[in-house]
Amino acid sequence: MTPRGTVDWSRFDAAWERCVVVDVETTGLDPATDRIIECAVLVVDRGEVRRTHSALVNPGRPLPEVITGITGMVDSDLADAPRADAALPRILDLIGDLPLLGHNVAFDIAFLEAEAHRAGVDLPTGGRPGPRMRDRAVCTAAAARAVIPRSAVGRYRLSTLSEYIEARHRPTHRAVDDALATLELYRVLRRHRRRPDPRWVPTGPSTATP
């Protein structure tokens, strides 16, 4: 995976042709002990959504109050949802060997990897010679840090960036909404790469359009 704070612009641009946007909601921040409770996958061709898949996932434990406060989900919403071992195969099948686009996408990938490991589910092209999911990651947070000045947004949260670019889709801490907001941010960042927005001050030579 490209180190935090740097951007593989060739991978970023290549994702335009075809990629999947992923977003997971979880019971907490630690992939080793917390669980996925919702996942969305958008299959995207040239910036347009071709397929949408979302799944609630029963974490097998009560939701922390803070997570209910953030997502609006309660235990009864997940009671009849499949466990991760049943939900993951469809999610991973859609991901396949495509680039994975997300906001702070390392978080989403870490949870997918951890859940797959616990469930004994094979990751898509996770073994050799196929590239691992983390080796196909495209992070909109890293790209935004590279081209949007901190003074304009404060912190590079998806909600803050969506407000700054006046996005039509706004994140809600629900997986589909956040995935759509991420895709819209990606479109704007890519457009900036091609036609720089005068509001944004380049922060280094890597931000220049080849």
Automatic annotation (TrEMBL):
<dbReference type="Pfam" id="PF00929">
    <property type="entry name" value="RNase_T"/>
</dbReference>
<dbReference type="GO" id="GO:0003887">
    <property type="term" value="F:DNA-directed DNA polymerase activity"/>
</dbReference>
<dbReference type="InterPro" id="IPR036397">
    <property type="entry name" value="RNaseH_sf"/>
</dbReference>
<keyword id="KW-0540">Nuclease</keyword>
<dbReference type="GO" id="GO:0005829">
    <property type="term" value="C:cytosol"/>
</dbReference>
<dbReference type="InterPro" id="IPR006054">
    <property type="entry name" value="DnaQ"/>
</dbReference>
<keyword id="KW-0378">Hydrolase</keyword>
<dbReference type="GO" id="GO:0003677">
    <property type="term" value="F:DNA binding"/>
</dbReference>
<dbReference type="InterPro" id="IPR012337">
    <property type="entry name" value="RNaseH-like_sf"/>
</dbReference>
<dbReference type="InterPro" id="IPR013520">
    <property type="entry name" value="Ribonucl_H"/>
</dbReference>
<dbReference type="GO" id="GO:0008408">
    <property type="term" value="F:3'-5' exonuclease activity"/>
</dbReference>
<protein>
    <submittedName>
        <fullName>3'-5' exonuclease</fullName>
    </submittedName>
</protein>
<dbReference type="GO" id="GO:0045004">
    <property type="term" value="P:DNA replication proofreading"/>
</dbReference>
<feature type="domain" description="Exonuclease">
    <location>
        <begin position="18"/>
        <end position="195"/>
    </location>
</feature>
<keyword id="KW-0269">Exonuclease</keyword>
